[in-house]
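Example for tutorial group B:
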């Protein structure tokens, strides 16, 4: 668990959600970034004028400088240094911690917590109304890293208005090493929102690790639900695709007569569609 250069860049892009805010981190977050890489930012430039925090192993002091408040951490053990709240987030957190924080930062913990429903309910309970949640977690090619890898649809379903959340931003970051903190060659992509893409699963097949960065607002303090059906199997799913022309229908019909050829051609179509370079689904920035 830790904040990388890419994570910190995403956080600085939403600096107003850190300044003068009470921050809680999920797990004691290690510092995998160098402040000097962000010296063009006026707030960071001001901090660097007094301290570079180069020797700090954790983000606590830097977040304190930005937020003007002590940074609180919650963890189930003190393995990464003494934490402020020692608690296992598989269980529901006591009410004395509810509605205490403006901003919650999860730099790679959620995928390691088995009871996702309790975990996310805890995130909601820790935050004040209209507080904000940053999540940096695994999306692709992290088999065995944690209990889970997450999809865009998971975030859009679970962190929906129905559960008292609003997703403000989702970014996919592809990097060149399994350790995100080691990677210097990173590519950022945003999913394209459109009526046609609304019901797509946004599947991705690639050979590099991908992380998902999420910014979410906590709109109210309700009990969350996991009673969702994936879009492909929802009764409300609509056929938003274009109608097949007569020539297209003819070709598909004849292809299906030879299953081996049909399977191969359809497989090629999937390989073309299920990638980050698919400009109908993702935008590089």
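The residue assignment follows.
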């Amino acid at each position: 668990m830790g904040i990388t250069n890419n994570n910190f860049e995403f956080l600085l892009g939403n600096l107003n959600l850190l300044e003068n805010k009470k921050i809680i981190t999920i797990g004691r977050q290690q510092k995998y970034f160098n402040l000097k890489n962000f010296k063009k930012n006026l707030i960071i430039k001001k901090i660097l004028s007094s301290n570079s925090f180069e020797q700090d192993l954790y983000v606590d002091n830097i977040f304190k400088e930005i937020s003007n408040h002590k940074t609180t951490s919650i963890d189930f053990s003190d393995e990464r240094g003494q934490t402020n709240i020692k608690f296992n987030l598989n269980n529901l957190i006591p009410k004395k911690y509810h509605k205490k924080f403006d901003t919650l930062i999860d730099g790679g913990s959620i995928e390691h917590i088995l009871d996702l429903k309790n975990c996310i309910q805890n995130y909601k309970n820790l935050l004040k109304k209209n507080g904000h949640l940053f999540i940096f977690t695994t999306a692709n090619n992290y088999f065995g890293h944690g209990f889970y890898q997450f999809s865009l649809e998971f975030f859009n379903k679970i962190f929906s208005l129905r559960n008292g959340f609003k997703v403000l931003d989702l970014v996919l970051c592809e990097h060149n090493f399994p350790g995100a903190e080691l990677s210097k060659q990173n590519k950022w992509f945003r999913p394209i929102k459109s009526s046609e893409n609304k019901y797509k699963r946004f599947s991705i097949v690639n050979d590099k690790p991908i992380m998902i960065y999420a910014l979410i607002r906590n709109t109210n303090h309700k009990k969350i639900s996991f009673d969702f059906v994936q879009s492909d199997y929802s009764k409300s799913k609509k056929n938003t695709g274009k109608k097949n022309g007569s020539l297209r229908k003819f070709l598909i019909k004849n292809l299906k007569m030879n299953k081996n050829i049909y399977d191969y051609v359809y497989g090629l179509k999937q390989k073309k569609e299920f990638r980050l370079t698919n400009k109908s689904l993702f935008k590089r920035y």
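Helices lie at 5-12, 42-48, 60-67, 116-126, 152-158, 246-256, 259-273. Compare this with the pattern of hydrophobic and polar residues in the output above.
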